[in-house]
Amino acid sequence: MSVIAVANQKGGVGKTTTVANLGAALSEQGYRVLLVDNDPQANLAITLGVTDPEILSPTLGDLLVERGHNLTRGHVADAIVRTPSRLDLLPANSRLSAAELALIGTIGREMIMRDLLAPEIAEYDFVVIDCLPSLGLLAINALAAADGVVIPVQADFLALQGLAQMLETVNAVRAKLNAGLTVLGAVLTMMDVRTAHARGVATMLREALIGQVRVFDAEIRAQVALKDCVQEGRSVLEYRAESQAAMAYRRLASEVIEALEPRPNPAMWAEPGSRTAEALEPAVALGIASALEQAPTAPPAEAEAMAPLSRFGAFLAGRDAWLGQQAR
Ligand SMILES: Nc1ncnc2c1ncn2[C@@H]1O[C@H](COP(=O)(O)OP(=O)(O)O)[C@@H](O)[C@H]1O
Ligand SMILES: [Mg+2]
Which residues have any ligand 1 atom within 6 Å of their CB? Predict the structure, then answer.
């Protein structure tokens, strides 16, 4: 059983679309899949045809609050609904926002989702968590519960900046909460293959991350079928089985399975207790990783520990030169 968090603190980058269709692709390959909606907006439920998540009870938020108060009345199994496409979904609704606030004062607040899910999900081959667009407590809980993280990125420069921040958060979670967390890879989404910009960003991203973070070969193009299928409450694999989008998500599923195979941690990650990890410690202790932005920057003596991210920074800094080339 593997738990995969699909996360990026930016909204509108294709997280929910990826969870729905990656989940459908894994299910199509015969695996038992549970999708978890970790976003009070409940887009995942709606995407999968569960039209009124507000009336559901219990939901993820209710279970988290109970668990946070050491009440174990509700079980994950009581909350799971079967979507019209026969996918199992642990739904959320607006009560998840209240749950995030309720958890702030709870001991072990970063581990509550893991404690909730772990005993109840053994029957699934894959659990895929759709994260909300933030690096707050709910997202940290998902990363603490996960074996791997998939990061959807749009092929534009601002999205790449977000990726660097996301990788720092994963580093901090690895150091303090979940040493087993792996970045399975970044997936390019909403690729407009007709533009030189998208192609250029994709190429640069792949080159810049060689040896650091896998960028999946599967690229998700901007395709209206991925919007239309939401209206139908179906995955694109059902809605347009032979479309490029369906094929791309099938390919992504195969690559994610491959990435989950055990292998040594890449050297880029800060080990627990390293100076990088210490620098990030207060932010994680607060459970609010967006505070990472205020984390002290490393003095020159620590340049080595920060090397991978500064290499990524150099990549971002190179954008002006690159944009200049595009203009010519
Ligand atoms: N590859 C794509 N092509 C076209 N539209 C897409 C694609 N991926 C996502 N969308 C649409 O873009 C919007 C945002 O995507 P979504 O998956 O909800 O992002 P997030 O969960 O990161 O906020 C949605 O309306 C979705 O239907
Ligand atoms: Mg979403």
Answer: 11-17, 43, 133, 189-190, 220, 222-223, 226-227, 230
- Contacts of residue 328, defined as CB under 8 A and 6 or more positions apart, other chains included, come to none
Number of C-alpha atoms within 13 angstroms, CB side, residue 80? Answer: 17
Identify whether the C-beta of residue 313 lies closer than 8 Å to the C-beta of residue 212.
Answer: no
Taking only the tens place, the pLDDT of each residue in 248-260 is 999 999 999 999 9
State how far Cα 53 lies from the chain centre. Answer: 21
Instruction: Please report, for residues 98, 164, 235, 275, 312, the alpha-carbon distance to residue 294 in angstroms, rounded to integers and kept in the order given.
Output: 26, 15, 40, 16, 19
35 pairs with which residues across the strands? 89, 128
Substitution site in 17, 22, 134 for ligand 1 pocket (most atoms within 8 Å of beta carbon): 17
pTM: 0.84
Question: Domain 2-269, what fold?
Answer: Rossmann fold (3.40.50)
Q: What are the two backbone dihedrals, phi and then psi, of residue 150, each rounded to the nearest 5 degrees?
A: -110, 130
Q: Per-residue pLDDT tens for 209-262?
A: 888 899 999 999 999 999 999 999 999 999 999 999 999 999 999 999 999 987
Q: Report the distance separating Cα 284 and Cα 147, nearest Å.
A: 18
- Domain parsing of the chain, residue ranges: 2-269
Element housing 81 (H / E) = strand 81-82
